[in-house]
């Protein structure tokens, strides 16, 4: 007798369920992590839920469950799971406190971050040396986030400025190689109306990771044809790329560069970001705004038009950004600027380089 497709499907699901229930917790969590790394959050949630059904108070399992829920947009459920983690283990495990801080605002967020920092500092005392760099970076970034809260949500507190100053100093002291700490210092200096200090902080940030595109191209050209032992071309930029700050932090660097009038560097980094991910509306907008400020109107129109095109395709809640981009495009078009002019300028530039 031939089984119907529906019966085969039910039997397959039952087999999968049976196999999952037969796995020990350790194996279930291993597979959970594999699915998280693959961005398959639904599968990760199934496996970690199976683990929790066996060990309801397993902190590691609960934290993985919260991570999967957050990725799936189930913020309220993740919050409840993290609160359970705190109840089970109120003095160990810094990650849950830092995540709870990110899920809150204002003084509530600061309270969770302070607890997370205390636990993190304790963890540093007992952790093996190989874990120290990662923990130190987390500590520095936690100080940065707290400083940002004092610059925004809690800016009306009487001691907000001094708290922010202290936290930025702690962030830099904890990890002097953390670009985020110097970006935060730059924002602080701008709020203090100290453009010189802001520029110095931004320079320090850029010195940790930024390589101008023209230098990258020169390096690639000098290494062109260099072979690795297997006969392939060497990847000269792979190590540098691995050390880059997060995409969002580099976007923040562009914003600060433009605010401080350093438009050329801002445009260069924005174009590097576009080459890395060309579906981020904000980056196209920043590139367009930078080009506009530099007087490169054809390229400004090209970048801004692409930002609006992506908005129609992907959507966005950045209403002010999109309104500004729309105004700029209308202005440029009223002046007779066309995207074709950008291509012509690129061609002229290439011809000049060849000569």
Span from first to last CA? Answer: 79 Å
Mean pLDDT: 87
Second CATH tier, the architecture of the domain at 91-208: Alpha Horseshoe
Order of helices and strands: HHHHHHHHHHHHHHHHHHH
Give the uncertain stretches in residue-range form.
11-18, 225-240, 350-355
Main sheet properties:
none
Number of strands: 0
Structural class: mainly alpha
Count of runs of 4 or more consecutive helical residues: 19
CATH superfamily of the domain at 91-208: Tetratricopeptide repeat domain
Overall, the morphology is globular
CATH class of the domain at 91-208: Mainly Alpha
- What is the beta-strand fraction? under 5%
The CATH topology of the domain at 91-208 corresponds to: Serine Threonine Protein Phosphatase 5, Tetratricopeptide repeat
Please bin the fraction of helical residues. over 70%
Rg: 25 Å
Could you describe the 3D structure shown?
- There is one protein chain.
- By secondary structure, this protein is mainly α.
- It has helices at residues 5-22, 25-37, 41-54, 59-71, 75-88, 94-102, 106-126, 132-151, 160-174, 179-191, 195-207, 213-223, 238-242, 247-259, 263-276, 281-293, 297-314, 319-334, 339-354.
- It starts with a helix and ends with a helix.
- Helices cover 76% and strands 0% of the residues.
- Helix 16 packs antiparallel against helix 17, helix 16 crosses helix 18 (319-334) and helix 17 (297-314) crosses helix 19 (339-354).
- The longest helix has 21 residues, at 106-126.
- Among the domains are: 21-87, Alpha Horseshoe (Serine Threonine Protein Phosphatase 5, Tetratricopeptide repeat); 91-208, Alpha Horseshoe (Serine Threonine Protein Phosphatase 5, Tetratricopeptide repeat).
- It has 19 helices and no strands.
- It holds the Pfam family TPR_16.
């Amino acid at each position: 007798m031939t089984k119907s497709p529906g019966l085969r499907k039910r039997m397959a699901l039952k087999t999968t369920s049976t196999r999952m229930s037969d796995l020990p917790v350790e194996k279930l969590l291993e597979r959970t992590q594999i699915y998280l790394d693959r961005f398959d959050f639904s599968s990760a949630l199934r496996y970690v839920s199976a683990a929790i059904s066996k060990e309801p108070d397993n902190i590691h399992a609960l934290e993985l469950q919260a991570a999967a829920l957050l990725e799936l947009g189930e913020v309220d459920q993740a919050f409840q799971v993290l609160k359970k983690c705190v109840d089970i283990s109120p003095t160990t495990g810094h990650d849950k406190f830092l995540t709870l801080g990110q899920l809150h605002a204002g003084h509530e967020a600061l309270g969770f971050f302070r607890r997370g920092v205390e636990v993190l500092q304790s963890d540093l005392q007992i952790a093996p040396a190989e874990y120290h760099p990662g923990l130190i970076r987390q500590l520095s970034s936690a100080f940065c986030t707290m400083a940002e809260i004092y610059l925004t949500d809690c800016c009306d507190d009487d001691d907000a400025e001094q708290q922010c100053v202290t936290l930025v100093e702690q962030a830099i002291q904890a990890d002097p190689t953390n670009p985020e700490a110097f970006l935060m210092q730059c924002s602080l200096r701008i709020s203090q109306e100290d453009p010189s200090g802001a520029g110095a902080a931004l320079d320090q940030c850029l010195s940790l990771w930024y390589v101008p595109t023209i230098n990258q191209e020169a390096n690639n050209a000098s290494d062109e044809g260099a072979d690795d032992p297997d006969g392939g071309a060497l990847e000269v930029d792979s190590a540098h790329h691995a050390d880059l700050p997060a995409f969002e932090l580099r976007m923040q660097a562009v914003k600060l560069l433009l605010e401080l009038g350093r438009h050329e560097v801002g445009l260069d980094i924005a174009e590097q970001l576009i080459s890395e991910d060309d579906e981020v509306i904000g980056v196209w907008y920043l590139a367009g705004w930078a080009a506009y400020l530099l007087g490169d109107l054809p390229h400004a129109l090209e970048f801004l038009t692409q930002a609006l095109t992506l908005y129609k395709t992907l959507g966005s809640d950045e209403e002010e950004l999109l309104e500004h981009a729309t105004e700029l495009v209308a202005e440029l078009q009223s002046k007779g600027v066309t995207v074709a002019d950008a291509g012509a300028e690129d061609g002229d530039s290439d011809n000049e380089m060849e000569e």
